[in-house]
Predict the 3D structure of the following.
Amino acid sequence: MSNPATVHLPPLPYPEDALAPHISSDTVALHYGKHHAGYVSNVNRLVAGTPREGTPLEDLIVTATGGLFNNAAQVWNHTFYWRSMHPEGGGEPSGALRAAIEGSFGSVDGFWKKFSDAACGHFGSGWVWLTAVGDDLEVMATANADLPQRHDRAPLLTIDVWEHAYYLDYRNARPAYVERWIENLVNWEFAAANLAAL
Ligand code: MN
């Protein structure tokens, strides 16, 4: 007999080797199959037999605290991260997203400068986000599992800057990971769809 899981590990949106050579299949296998899957297991273990059992992930990430928040938010953040990348990513944003970026940052390059500085400069583990707040877009860095929804911001895009995201491929060279991510992996269509849905 088993209770229904509160959260599930969603399938990767592409094969494990699809982000290579920018992110290797070894990194994705470990990051998705061990780290992301581990957070899913932890959430289900933490809520089993408690009133939280069956609570949707979207509720947990805004209402939970402590270890349950950390694990629930890491489940959500990683699902969002995989979708923030595409094997044929990179290039330039278009349409309403491009207009919003130019309105808030002056130019696409101006946005990337802020995003890259935040990603390379963030101390310790965390995430860097493109977020929407009202009619403006902002770059935001969060520590550990924290996420924009706890700060009245809507996430459009994220990069994982925990060491497990890049250490196998880039060792300690986080700026090289960030640069390759920006140039080759960013999924503008995902960000545009998130903006359009607000
Ligand atoms: Mn991660």
Q: What stands out?
A: The pocket of manganese (II) ion is lined by residues 31, 35, 78, 160, 162, 164-165 (CB under 6 Å). The helical segments are 25-47, 57-63, 66-83, 95-105, 108-121, 167-170, 174-185, 188-196. The chain has eight helices and three strands.
